[in-house]
């Protein structure tokens, strides 16, 4: 049989493909810069160096693939940043968004401030680091309609700022499966002054409106937003705001701090600080197993925590004080667990709690110990710092009065002769009578 040269060539190519090492693609960095910057951005550039940046976000976003970085030069970008609706190529489940492994990263250029008007995120597995949003009456500053997004700053000293949205500063919008939004991570942020530019009737005006599930919100601040700092809520029966975690966040100056409502199941709210909302700090409404743990909640104009129509809420280990109404108010609930809280006034349980144990009433500024806590009872705290010195009994026996405590040996007390006062009685009268006024008598010790 005559050999087939074409078959031999194909076999050789297959062999080379099997034995040659496969070279992984090297991640690329694309540069974005305003046309008014120097160097100026232009979409006719290749975007691959700091001196050849592109001018529009759409241009660089269309080029990036997982593992790539978009480096954004400083300035204010007035156009909306919208990733478009197509799935991110080669994005896979399990991407470590915090570290950026396999994700597309959009970050501010080192040492420069980046502000955009609106950021609409509709592709999964993107990270946004140091991208501030000043919405200037745009409806939502950051609108997330897909899964597995990280948004935040570098650390708590370099937080992103999201402000002045007409409705919500940070909005995670959900859809029915299989396109369910979930796994959003918001960290190192300052979300403030949203929802109060052009209030609309029957529209949520929040710092953040959270319809998606299994997210983490941490290490940030919600301040001076029109209604809630953040609301976990199922608005249209499409949302699934369950399994979210809120931790190490400060709330102040909002109408309300946080609400867990409308089928937001299994939400955990812990290690946060709330103060000086104009209404209440924490609302739990018509939901199941919302857990409020180890928070400090003080000084708002109405309630510290209030529960309405919820099943199995857990409120434990919180300090709640200084509210103009009740610190902890239960309007209606079933299977509630209210335990080990310190409140400034009596808990109003509405008579419908199943577990109410280990709570104390007292001013937290004066509580110095929990050693006398009886976990099986609710008490008014007896462990307060005494306010009057008279309240501190001092035993005379506590003052060492024994002469034995004073060294008696003259050798232990070096005394100069000049330091020993001499009584006039020790001077002979004949000497005193013979001395004229103004004359000094010098005495020397006997040798």
Overview of this protein structure:
- The chain has 447 residues and is mainly β.
- It has helices at 5-19, 57-63, 429-433; strands spanning 29-32, 69-72, 75-82, 104-108, 114-121, 126-129, 131-134, 140-144, 149-152, 160-163, 168-172, 185-192, 206-210, 216-223, 228-232, 245-252, 256-261, 268-270, 273-275, 282-285, 291-293, 296-298, 305-308, 310-311, 314-316, 319-321, 328-330, 333-334, 337-339, 342-343, 355-357, 360-361, 379-380.
- The protein is built from three helices and 33 strands.
- The strands form two sheets. The protein has a 31-stranded parallel sheet that branches. The chain has a two-stranded parallel ribbon with strand order 24-28.
- Strand 1 (29-32), helix 2 (57-63) and strand 2 (69-72) form a beta-alpha-beta unit.
- The longest helix has 15 residues, at 5-19.
- The radius of gyration is 36 Å and the shape is elongated.
Topology summary:
Elements: H1 5-19, E1 29-32, H2 57-63, E2 69-72, E3 75-82, E4 104-108, E5 114-121, E6 126-129, E7 131-134, E8 140-144, E9 149-152, E10 160-163, E11 168-172, E12 185-192, E13 206-210, E14 216-223, E15 228-232, E16 245-252, E17 256-261, E18 268-270, E19 273-275, E20 282-285, E21 291-293, E22 296-298, E23 305-308, E24 310-311, E25 314-316, E26 319-321, E27 328-330, E28 333-334, E29 337-339, E30 342-343, E31 355-357, E32 360-361, E33 379-380, H3 429-433
Parallel strand pairs: 1-2, 2-4, 3-5, 4-6, 5-7, 5-8, 6-9, 7-10, 8-11, 9-12, 10-12, 11-13, 12-14, 13-15, 14-16, 15-17, 16-18, 16-19, 17-20, 18-21, 19-22, 20-23, 21-25, 22-26, 23-27, 24-28, 25-29, 26-30, 29-31, 30-32, 32-33
